[in-house]
Automatic annotation (TrEMBL):
Chain segments annotated as coiled-coil in the UniProt record: none
Organism field: Jeotgalibacillus marinus
Function of the molecule: Catalyzes the transfer of a formyl group from 10-formyltetrahydrofolate to 5-phospho-ribosyl-glycinamide (GAR), producing 5-phospho-ribosyl-N-formylglycinamide (FGAR) and tetrahydrofolate.
Record's protein name: Phosphoribosylglycinamide formyltransferase
Protein family according to the UniProt entry: Belongs to the GART family.
Enzyme kind, highest EC tier: transferase
This protein's UniProt keywords: Purine biosynthesis, Transferase
Enzymatic reactions: N(1)-(5-phospho-beta-D-ribosyl)glycinamide + (6R)-10-formyltetrahydrofolate = N(2)-formyl-N(1)-(5-phospho-beta-D-ribosyl)glycinamide + (6S)-5,6,7,8-tetrahydrofolate + H(+)
Ranges where the Formyl transferase N-terminal domain occurs: 3-182
Length: 202
């Protein structure tokens, strides 16, 4: 069983989906720790209700990214965490964690990367007027949503779809695709890298 830590900054819906997949025995993992940079984020309450230990920090309390990442690394090592799973974590990962968890840090992003990286990907896609949108799971590197793609799933945007409907569809895909992809990663030696609009195959 793979020991993971989830990093989140917001409501934690993907954190919740991961926990539910574990409970359904669809994901062979344990969430050893939640790392959060927002003390008032709702994900903290989700962790409390699920009995998951959490570590919360405020970046402004540290002199540098390296300093707070070293503190985080100590927390991860104390729990023997094997993989880092980003789920709405709104900070770039720095050298300390990238080096310690090379090719073992995963992120989910609400667009078909490399299109619409960064903040408000949904808004970017709507403003551009795309007819196909989707979700990407990728390895994390030093850039913003630039790491190698692992899996993607797309859907067609209908003309009458509001932003809230689009976001609901993206969340639905995220909550299925992320646990499925993680399970693939944790149970296979190799990773089937997919092209845009494909799903990772069983």
């Amino acid at each position: 069983m793979t020991k993971i830590a989830v990093f989140a900054s917001g409501s934690g819906s993907n954190f919740g989906a991961i926990l539910q997949a574990i409970e359904r025995k669809e994901l062979d993992a344990t969430v050893e720790l939640l790392i959060c940079d927002k003390p008032n984020a709702y994900v903290m309450e989700r962790a409390r209700q699920a009995g998951v230990d959490s570590f919360v920090f405020q970046a402004k309390s540290f002199s540098s990214k390296e300093q707070y990442e070293r503190v985080i690394l100590e927390q991860l090592q104390s729990k023997n965490v094997e993989w880092i799973v980003l789920a709405g974590y709104m900070r770039l990962i720095g050298t300390v964690l990238l080096t310690s968890y090379e090719k073992r840090i995963i992120n989910i992003h609400p667009s078909l990367l490399p299109a619409f990286a960064g903040k408000d990907a949904v808004g970017q896609a709507i403003d551009y007027g795309v007819k196909v949108m989707g979700v990407t799971v990728h390895f994390v590197d030093e850039g913003m949503d630039t790491g190698p793609i692992i899996s993607q799933q797309s859907f067609h945007v209908q003309g009458d779809m509001s932003r809230s409907v689009i976001e609901d569809q993206i969340h639905f895909i995220e909550h299925e695709l992320y646990p499925e992809t993680l399970q693939q990663l944790f149970t296979k030696k190799g990773v089937h890298m997919v092209n845009a609009n494909e799903r990772m195959e069983e």
